[in-house]
Amino acid sequence: MEQARSLRWQGWARGAVLALAAWAAAGPALAQDMAGARDHPLLKRFGGSHIVGYEARNFDEIDFQTSTYAGHDSRSRERRYAEAPLHLEGKLTRYWYEAPGDIRSVEVFRNYVNDLAASGFETLYDSSKDAKAKSWPAFLATFSDTGGRDFIKNTRSPMVFVAAAQNTIRTGTFRKGNATVRVIVVDWPKEDKVYKARQGAYIAVDILEARAMEQKMEVVSASEIEKSLTANGKVAIYGIHFDTGKADIKLESKPSLDQIAAFLKADPKARLHVVGHTDSVGGFDSNLSLSRRRAEAVVAALMKDYGIAAGRLVGNGVASLAPVASNATDEGRARNRRVELVLQ
User: Which residues are within 8 A (CB) of 236 and not within 5 positions of it... i.e. 6 or more apart?
Assistant: First the structure.
């Protein structure tokens, strides 16, 4: 019996060792994306890579290189290019992908370039076609454009892009519609515990979807109203309050009404549509009526309390037809309940 027990133990031990070895060998294949990270719908990932850095910003600004690097000011350290970088604002999503194994940046970068072209993106800059891009200053300029001192949260050392061999970096800027994409790829020659990096290639991707910033302040000043109307033709006002299901303006709305009146008085030629918006709670027909009555209440208050001429304002409502957020959450519904001023 002891011999049988010993044989069973030896068999189990051998099986455990083999299973552990198989698990260890499959380690790279089992690598997972950073928690909470997901691919952007506009861009595929390189096969076998996974996300080790991810950040989504609702609104930010960033520069995109569109021409060769032309030096920098020794005092200000300001980077200079043959043409001014493309400065954009909007929703910014940033990634680090790790592609482990016998993979080099040239293969990864060409895959991205080809796939972006096939998806209809225009190439604004491609370092592989820029003779000056292999110099060290050009590398520093490109690296700084990836964030430099503004590294995104990641599970690898941010110094990977600094420490990587300079002649392996490849970068490109691509645009389609309102979306601009930057791709930067570098080689990492061998596994390194200091940098927490694995042999292969690392890819930095920035995706900027251009859009105007939403004005979220409760009381929007007269000057801010003017700026938003000039830039966007409309401005959202969140400081005008009503009780649920009612169209009577509450007393705490006065500061916002003061600013709307101040704008109208400063620009006597301005004519506005005052548009009421609701969330999707309740019936559509009742919300349509409610949104119109609320808009008309704002028009009436501006005429009666501030002396704004009737011909300059038109009130109307669109219920929940123009949401700016999801109606599935309390926060989204709060953003959808608003009054907008739209230039006639």
Answer: 214, 215, 324, 338, 339, 340
Examine the domain organization and report whether 204 and 233 are in the same domain.
no
Q: Amino acid identity of 62?
A: I
Same domain, 74 and 162: yes
Question: Tens of pLDDT along the chain (344 residues)?
Answer: 444 444 443 443 344 333 333 333 333 434 689 888 999 999 999 999 999 999 998 888 888 999 988 776 666 556 678 888 898 989 999 999 999 999 999 999 999 999 999 999 999 999 999 887 765 444 444 444 444 445 666 777 766 766 665 668 889 999 999 999 999 998 888 888 877 888 999 999 999 999 876 655 568 899 999 999 999 999 999 999 998 889 999 998 999 999 999 999 999 999 999 999 999 988 999 999 999 999 999 999 999 999 999 999 999 999 999 999 898 887 788 889 999 999 99
Task: Yes or no: say if 181 and 205 are a contact pair by the CB < 8 Å rule.
Answer: yes
Please check whether residues 111 and 162 belong to one and the same domain.
yes
4 part of a folded domain: no
Report the DSSP pairing between strands 200-210 and 272-277: unpaired
Q: Is 89 in the same domain as 160?
A: yes
Q: What is the CATH number of the domain that holds 289?
A: 3.30.1330.60
Same domain, yes or no: 231 and 126: no
The 3-state DSSP class for residue 108 equals helix
Cα separation, 287 vs 54, in Å, equals 40
Q: Which of 182, 210, 238 is the last residue of a domain?
A: 210
Q: How many domains does the chain have?
A: 2
Q: Order of strands, edge to edge, in the sheet holding 272-277?
A: 234-237, 338-343, 272-277, 313-317
